[in-house]
Amino acid sequence: MNGDPGGSVRAVESAPGAVIADSARAVSQVAAVDRAGAVTPLADTERAGAVTPLADTERAGAAAPLADTERAEAAAPLADTERAGAAALADGTDRAAVAHGVSDRVASSVVDAVILERAAGVLRLVLDRTRGRAPADDPALVETLLDGTAPEAARLHAARRLGLDPTVPARALAPLDERPRVVPAGTQADAVGRLGVGPCVPVLELPRSWAEARTALRFTAEGTPQDPGPRVVHAEELGGIALLADLVVPGAEPPSDVRALDAAAASTPWLAATLHAVAATASLRAAASEINVHHSTLQDRLAHAEHLLGWPVRTPQGRLRLQLALTMRRLARAQPPPSGWERLSGRGPVRGSGA
C-alpha cells in the first residue's frame, strides 16, 4: 500500500467526509484561538473600558442633580481629578484623552470663578446706584435735618440718608468758616477754626441743638493776643452766661465796659492777653505762667490795666466784672454767618443775631 500512490488517492477519495470533518475541526480550532486571543479580550476591553464607565457616567449624570454636580466640581480638589485620571489610565483609557479632560475641567473652574467675581462687582455697582447713597455732609440733607419747620418724616429721611441712626442722639456743629455739620453722640468735634458745639439731643430735636451751637459760636475767639479766648465753645458749658447773647447784638453800641476794654487794648498791645489770662486761670501766679512772665511783672501790668479801665481787676468783684466784659467783647465782635447759612441762620430760637 505504501508504494501505491494511487491507493492513497483512492483512500482520500473514498473518505472525503473524514477529510472535510478534519478540516472543519481545524478551522474551528483556529476560530477558537482567534476568539480567545483577539475577540474576547477586545470585547472585554470595550465593555470594561467604554461601555461600563459610560453607562455608569450616564446613570450618575441622570441621577445627580445639577446643583450637586456644580458643588462637586467646585469642591473637588485637583488631587481627586488626578486620581480619577490615574484610575482611567489603569483601565486602559487613552492618556491623551484623560489629560485633555483634566485640563478642560481646571480651565472651566477658573473661568467660572472669574465670571462670578465680575458679576458680583456689577451687582455692587448697581446696588450702590439704586440705593442712592448720599455724602455724609450733603448740604441739602443737613439743612433739612436742622430745619425746625421741615416735616418730621422729611427730617428722619434726611437723617437716614446721612447715615445717622434715628434712635441715637446727635449734636449740631456750627463752624465759622464751613457749612453746618451733624455728628452722632460720642464723636469728637474736630475743628480747624472757631466752632460752636450744640448739645446732644434726639435726632428730631437737632434744630434746637443747632440754635444753641450758633449761640456758642458767638462766644468763641480767634485765640490770638489781639483776640484771646477759646476757639471751641460747647453750649452745655455756657449755662446762664448764654443769656448775655440776648443783650449784646453785633453791630450795636457795645456796653461801656466793652468800650473801655477796646480803648485800653488799642493803646497797650499786651493788655488783652494779660487780662484774659487773669480771668481764665485760678490765680495770679497761674496767670503769670500762662503768659510766660514773672509774677512781679504781672502785678505791674495789672496796676497799669486798672488805671486804663477804671475799675480793679484783682478783687473778686473786679475779676467777675472783667470776665463779663471780656465775654461781652467777644459777643460784640462776633462775625456774621458764612456763606451757605442764609436759610438756617434765620430759623429757630437763636439768641442774638450774630451767627
As a percent range, the share of strand residues is: under 5%
Low-pLDDT runs of 5+ residues are 1-21, 29-67, 69-79, 128-134, 346-355
Number of strands: 4
Number of helices: 15
Structural class: mainly alpha
Look at the structure and give the mean pLDDT. Answer: 75
Shape: elongated
What percentage of residues falls in helices of 4 or more residues? 55-70%
Q: Span between N and C termini?
A: 150 Å
Biggest sheet record: 4 strands, mixed
Give the strand order of the largest sheet, numbering strands 1, 2, ... along the chain: 2-1-3-4
Q: What oligomeric assembly is this protein in? A: single chain
SSE order in H/E notation? HHHHHHHEEEHEHHHHHHH
Radius of gyration: 50 Å
Q: In words, what does this structure look like?
A:
This protein has helices spanning 5-14, 16-63, 66-75, 78-90, 95-131, 139-146, 152-161, 206-218, 244-247, 256-267, 271-280, 284-290, 295-309, 316-332, 342-345, and strands spanning 170-175, 181-184, 195-197, 232-234. The protein has 355 residues and is mostly helical. Strands 2-1-3-4 form a 4-stranded mixed β-sheet. Strand 1 and strand 2 form a beta hairpin. The longest helix has 48 residues, at 16-63. The chain is elongated and about 100 Å long. It starts with a helix and ends in a 10-residue tail after the last helix.
